[in-house]
Amino acid sequence: ILHVDLIKGKNLIKSDIIGKSDPYAVLKFGKQKDKTPVVKNTQNPEWNHNSEFALDFEDTLSLHVEVFDADKFGKDKSLGSVEISPRDLESTEPKWYPLKGVKSGEIL
User: Fold this and answer.
1) How many CB atoms lie within 10 A of CB 67?
2) Which residues, at least 6 apart from 33, have a Cβ–Cβ distance to it below 8 Å?
3) Minimal CA–CA distance to 53: which of 18, 89, 79, 19?
4) Cα 51 to chain center, whole Å?
């Protein structure tokens, strides 16, 4: 089993013209998927979310985490994403991962 604790995000980009984002994260591992709750009006959300995915030792899959801004109107906007190797998650020490495709933002 691949156990993932998505604790928080920091310095997420603002995608809303007015105010701050309402961020949540989607975690995907192969065909498995999980989602954190939405945290309202912040660039530094605290999710404290635990996910577990079935893991095969021969898996060469990466964990894909994408952060979105929940939007009442229209499509939720991406605030960046990151691919993480399950081997990088074996450590018990939390680690910040920078989000790709955006100017700023990290997840722990």
Assistant:
1) 27
2) 26, 27
3) 89
4) 11
Q: What are the backbone dihedrals phi and psi of residue 45, each rounded to the nearest 5 degrees, phi first? A: -75, 150
Over its length of 108 residues, how does the chain's per-residue pLDDT go in tens digits?
A: 899 999 999 999 987 677 789 999 999 999 999 999 999 999 999 999 999 999 887 767 899 999 999 988 889 999 999 999 988 888 888 999 999 999 999 999
C-alpha to C-alpha distance for 35 and 21, rounded to whole angstroms: 17
Angle at 65 between CA 63 and CA 67, to 5 degrees: 180
- Is there a contact between 105 and 97 (Cβ–Cβ < 8 Å)? no
d(CA 1, CA 79): 28
Residue 59 exposure: Cα atoms within 13 Å on the Cβ side? 16
Report yes or no: 86 and 44 within 8 Å, Cβ to Cβ. Answer: no
- The pTM score is 0.93
